[in-house]
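Assemble and predict.
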Amino acid sequence: MTAPPPSQHPPRFLALADGSFGPMSSKTANACLRYTPGRVAAVLDAAQAGRTAERVLGFGGPVPVVATLDEGIALGATAVLVGIAPPGGRLPDAWRALVARAASLGLDVWSGLHTYLADDPLIAEAARAGGATIVDLRRPPADLVVAAGRVREVDATVVLTVGSDCNIGKMTAQLQLRDALVARGRRAAFAATGQTGILVEGRGIAVDAVVADFIAGAAERLTIEASEGADIVLVEGQGSIIHPSYSGVTYGLLHGSLPHAMVLCHQPSRRAIVNQSWVPLPPLPELVAMHEAAARPLRPAPVIAVALNTVDLDDEAARRAVAEAEDATGLPTTDPVRFDPGTVVDAIERFDAARRGA
Amino acid sequence: MTAPPPSQHPPRFLALADGSFGPMSSKTANACLRYTPGRVAAVLDAAQAGRTAERVLGFGGPVPVVATLDEGIALGATAVLVGIAPPGGRLPDAWRALVARAASLGLDVWSGLHTYLADDPLIAEAARAGGATIVDLRRPPADLVVAAGRVREVDATVVLTVGSDCNIGKMTAQLQLRDALVARGRRAAFAATGQTGILVEGRGIAVDAVVADFIAGAAERLTIEASEGADIVLVEGQGSIIHPSYSGVTYGLLHGSLPHAMVLCHQPSRRAIVNQSWVPLPPLPELVAMHEAAARPLRPAPVIAVALNTVDLDDEAARRAVAEAEDATGLPTTDPVRFDPGTVVDAIERFDAARRGA
């Protein structure tokens, strides 16, 4: 989807995260809680019912965690949000009945899964009966074309987040950097490339959901669209160029968006790709060199900063990790969620000014 | 599709190549003429009607080029083959009526386009009326899963062709190498990854047509399937890791098939990506290094040979190009179509023996 979702009123979500609500899981629910908390009525996770989002995540305020759909409705939910992104993106069988029941009661269904819920006969029929709308965030536009380097005509400075692994902070870093740049008065836009980013931003294309030949074409289009009225476009990265399942998406996104510069995202505690322990993570300087080499044949782009995700470290360890990454790479480094993102924002502004010859 | 196409009798094709029949275009028709010439009744190209395939291509024997559908039917065609692979893979509007008419007359429709012809109401209705079957070679299996390195359990030696650009000989090289290995008594299998390879081989998955998250998963699956009963699996490469439109497919195929070794394909006369002149082709040694670097984080794989496409050179220039590539890379080099592929076949056998510690 590139147009805003079709709902007339901002939805109030019951975010489904049953059995998985936590800081490093339930990615879609978490982003919604961080960036649009007013849209979340409650989170559904029976195992943590009675707590608040703040207590589970460290952010999200007093949004309650509940055990049942009915409690969510009682709290004002007008839609259910399928807030997980499992491998392959398919809906767990156990959730189908719950979502169908919600739809039959008139709650809209927002989903970021690969399996489009509007194509699920059970859920579609329930939505029809209940007068509910189904918003499949990942469904790509029907009129994609293959990439042809059109993005080179964009005047804005394009910055892409890249990472050592999936689910490591590439979207969150860009949202934090965007907010900081806007606070400095810069015309900075966020280009969403995944279901969660699209949910937060209201537009974008899920590049992992397009037909493979169109990855770069989708990246080109969403970068061009985000550049309208912006001087800096912050493209949400996906996956990792060393991820055995998703590297094609990552690489196509890099060559389609043709960034002028990259920000490398990493979680210091990770030693290997999650769930693929046979792929160890290279040291940061090697990751920097690999990304610059991958970009070079099309448009050279330096890695200009490092954004760490230190969610599982205490403050002292987090500060040490930042210092170590800075030491190893020679690049400005921060955790843009935990600490002031200023040092990385400075790097982007310096790069932008140098590029424009200012 | 991974099962053989559903037709009961081998089809006799009228290969549609109107306005494009030639050595470096009409890729699907050409591969069919080279590897399964008995299946081609005629080629449709009004501009070259009256000639033979041999005269236009330099191979394909006496298969006639005709100007109309009716001539093709008179020559015994039982199916039309959409024998072009345009950017994005969509059916030219002008061809829809022709294909629909063929279907309404009972000719089966075989297509390698991204636009599935079975989903085209006009053509689907014509096929229903005419009792014709529509075979969409590119339609992926519905049950793909994301890659997880399962291909590492394959005992066979996996060799992937990679290339400096699209449409440069990656499929043809593998088919020539497969035939030569089989002639030496080796159990070698061809793993098809594109519509033309699937047409020739009768099985495979078009990795450029799957949802982007499943590129590597599709590559993993087709490599595992091809390895059954084979000691050497020759995986058909796609695109190029420097191609601005398709690099994601290429890179995902590399990380999904996890080759033990690679053969680099190149056309010496090309200086830049076709239709993307802003991307110059790096020198061969640099291409070798780039591919080895891309493979390394998951499974190190050397480039062990170079396969040139010298179709547009005379014999002397072709021999010189082979010698120059050999000199530049230090690797066994040939044009496996024009010359004896033995030197590259030797390289594969040596690599296989060394890998197995023989």
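Residues 60 and 238 of chain A are 24 Å apart (CA to CA).
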